[in-house]
Amino acid sequence: MTLTQLKYVVEAAAAGTISRAAEKLYISQPSLTAAIRELENEFGIVIFSRTNKGVVPTREGEEFLGYARQLITQANLMEERYSGAAPVRHQFCVSTQHYSFAVEAFVELLKKYGGEEYEFRIRETETYEIIEDVAKLKSEVGVLYLNKFNETVLRKIFREQDLRFERLFIAKPHVFVGAGSPLAGKESVTLEDLAPYPRLSYEQGEHNAFYFSEEILSTRESKKDIMVCDRATLFNLLIGLNGYTICSGVINQELNGENIIAIPLQVDDYMEIGTITHKKVVMGRFSRLYLEALKRYCPMD
What is the CATH number of the domain that holds 111? Predict the structure, then answer.
């Protein structure tokens, strides 16, 4: 295995076809095919499935590509640090539930350490995909919550996927409502108070099991349910329909405006919000910096 071979497979995965990857790498198509075959033979795996439309990573290929990207990133950082090479295009990805503090930490990371060139990604996505992203090394860090309802199932998945969960803080349940909502003037609300209003939740796609829900108390019945995919839509509907969503209560007015407020919810529950990382991967520079930034933007327990 060589670093060049790893760069070849990563480029092939990005391009989707061997011919396009070969053009970008300025090598012949047979040479690229041979390099990929050598890696597959060396490790006894199939990295790509070949189709009439190109190449698609297999399940074991996705895992291999995750490790390859990690090695390439570390090699680039070493070259930049010790050989006086020109700054490299820094890369980092985090997958997270819809938390403003996760975005704030991401912004700080970019401002301080992005450099002259970068490709940073933040994926506010479904819970299952957060776990998959970190397990397959597509993301270096995931941000999600545990509570007494989902903890047993999610911790079992973490063990199976070699993932490590570390707590950031414990949040008491709140609801987000619009500033003009009839509930907005209350110091706290009960489940009975919420009953007449639309409940907004983040869609979980095909993995819509209750323990993947981003909101606690997801099994509670509601006469008015609205599912959304992104935070902007959810906030607009909170305001326009006097709806609510159950949440951690952590909000940033600079990012989300003054029209959304958090109100304590009177229930016996909690949200243990934390990060997941892969046990078998040495944490990279940007992962460490991002985790440090997260802790600065999280409320204290």
Answer: 3.40.190.10
Q: Report the candidate in 31, 276, 10 with the shortest Cα–Cα distance to residue 144.
A: 276
Q: What is the pTM of this model?
A: 0.75
pLDDT in tens, 25-53: 888 888 888 888 888 888 888 988 888 88
Residues 41 and 27 in one domain: yes
- Structure-model confidence comparison of residues 257 and 259, the more confident one: 259
Residue 115 placed within a domain:
yes
Residues 31 and 177 placed together within one structural domain of the fold: no
> The domain containing residue 202 runs over which residues?
173-269
| 70, 85, 206 from 151: Cα distances, Å | 29, 46, 20
Which two structure tokens, joined as six digits, stand for 123? 């994926």
SS3 content of the chain, % helix, strand, coil (to 5): 45, 25, 35
**Sign for the pseudo-dihedral over CA of 193, 201, 295, 250:** negative
Q: Rounded CA gap, 4 and 35, in Å? A: 9
- For residue 269, the model assigns a pLDDT of 93
Cross-strand pairs, 177: 244, 261
pLDDT at position 61, please? Answer: 86
Give the pLDDT score at 255.
63
Do 83 and 54 touch, CB atoms closer than 8 A? no
